[in-house]
């Protein structure tokens, strides 16, 4: 079996690596020639720990190829994974234009039977829609199957998650598709769920929305903790020991960001609305998340009076550590608000960059934490990069004109920070 991956972003490249590691011949196809050129050299166009070494190993051995040639790629492969983006539209619905383009390309260039597998996160009912797009663009009516195989990897931990998944979910009505996918994933020792396409699609959205719910719940609880003089991290530790709750996704902070939770919660709410079901909990999850960054900024406003002409050091831009992804990053909201309130932002992130077209006069991108802290009246920590926790904050205090520390990820210990002279506020982490 020869595998084609359409879309060589975070998911496509990781999926290509997984199948190459299992010994299959894999080709990655993208419309972006820059990305393909880098990948051909065994280099990634994004930051993902451990992935580049594996990609470059398989490129060198010839097991992994990259191309922009749709016609040849589609004609020469039997199994095609769609891994293109499904961002949000302004109204909250998923934008399926890249999926439609990929489906139409497959229909147009197919020359034999193909198994088409959707790894992209697509709304419930998309498999039927993809079938109609393929059929409508076929020049000859070759047979094909469509299956859903949602991806559950986390950025920053993609290699580990994709090589050792918790579960493999397959949604298809075709016995042939199930058989081929079982062969493909043969070596994986994890639970399998083979179900209807719609169920598979909903499992993906329901999982992300549930995790987002845990986060918003903890963020609300953190506000209560601030009032009650209780530390939310201790509460989370106590809750997490109950195996029915579990310790993960209980970290209060600036709210969830990234390319998945915001858009997927929103799409699930929209899907429900189309069916006249009101997912009230998720409406609140989104609202809490939208307000969360401002909760920390309010603490800073109270302390500083206002931000006008004040140097503010913002540490961390990525939506979480160990990635360069800034899609829906809470740091962006913090920065936008600081700009509106006329602060002079000094930004540092070890990996993530502001896009070149985003150039604010009042934002200085710094090359080190020290540079960002220079003359600042406050530090706002937005991403919990390990290195921020390892710095000598006592020593760094001298760089600041005022030692105010607002910790959006509850990374520091309040007592220790106060002990070395900081005015410290976290999110439910002050006591
Ligand atoms: N990023 C994650 O952590 C993650 C995890 C699980 C699932 N997902 C889902 O996987 C999908 C992909 O996410 P991503 O983060 O990898 O996206 P991405 O934006 O990093 O990559 C998508 C790639 O598809 C390419 N593309 C678009 N249209 C194309 C076409 N017609 N032919 C060939 N290439 C095309 C783009 O150029 C881009 O390189 C989304 O639906 C997302 O929700 C993402
Ligand atoms: O306790 C927590 C855990 C996470 N976050 C935030 O939530 C966001 C998402 O984090 P995470 O889930 O680790 O990253 P993603 O790479 O977006 O992965 C999620 O989204 C992917 C795309 O659908 C799924 O495949 C993964 O299973 C799902 O975890 C980030 O902003 C985190 O800072 C918190 O605020 N508190």
UniProtKB/TrEMBL annotation:
<dbReference type="InterPro" id="IPR014027">
    <property type="entry name" value="UDP-Glc/GDP-Man_DH_C"/>
</dbReference>
<comment type="pathway">
    <text>Nucleotide-sugar biosynthesis; UDP-alpha-D-glucuronate biosynthesis; UDP-alpha-D-glucuronate from UDP-alpha-D-glucose: step 1/1.</text>
</comment>
<dbReference type="Pfam" id="PF00984">
    <property type="entry name" value="UDPG_MGDP_dh"/>
</dbReference>
<comment type="similarity">
    <text>Belongs to the UDP-glucose/GDP-mannose dehydrogenase family.</text>
</comment>
<dbReference type="InterPro" id="IPR001732">
    <property type="entry name" value="UDP-Glc/GDP-Man_DH_N"/>
</dbReference>
<dbReference type="Pfam" id="PF03720">
    <property type="entry name" value="UDPG_MGDP_dh_C"/>
</dbReference>
<dbReference type="InterPro" id="IPR028357">
    <property type="entry name" value="UDPglc_DH_bac"/>
</dbReference>
<dbReference type="InterPro" id="IPR014026">
    <property type="entry name" value="UDP-Glc/GDP-Man_DH_dimer"/>
</dbReference>
<keyword id="KW-0520">NAD</keyword>
<dbReference type="InterPro" id="IPR036291">
    <property type="entry name" value="NAD(P)-bd_dom_sf"/>
</dbReference>
<dbReference type="InterPro" id="IPR008927">
    <property type="entry name" value="6-PGluconate_DH-like_C_sf"/>
</dbReference>
<protein>
    <recommendedName>
        <fullName>UDP-glucose 6-dehydrogenase</fullName>
        <ecNumber>1.1.1.22</ecNumber>
    </recommendedName>
</protein>
<dbReference type="InterPro" id="IPR036220">
    <property type="entry name" value="UDP-Glc/GDP-Man_DH_C_sf"/>
</dbReference>
<feature type="domain" description="UDP-glucose/GDP-mannose dehydrogenase C-terminal">
    <location>
        <begin position="313"/>
        <end position="414"/>
    </location>
</feature>
<keyword id="KW-0560">Oxidoreductase</keyword>
<dbReference type="Pfam" id="PF03721">
    <property type="entry name" value="UDPG_MGDP_dh_N"/>
</dbReference>
<dbReference type="InterPro" id="IPR017476">
    <property type="entry name" value="UDP-Glc/GDP-Man"/>
</dbReference>
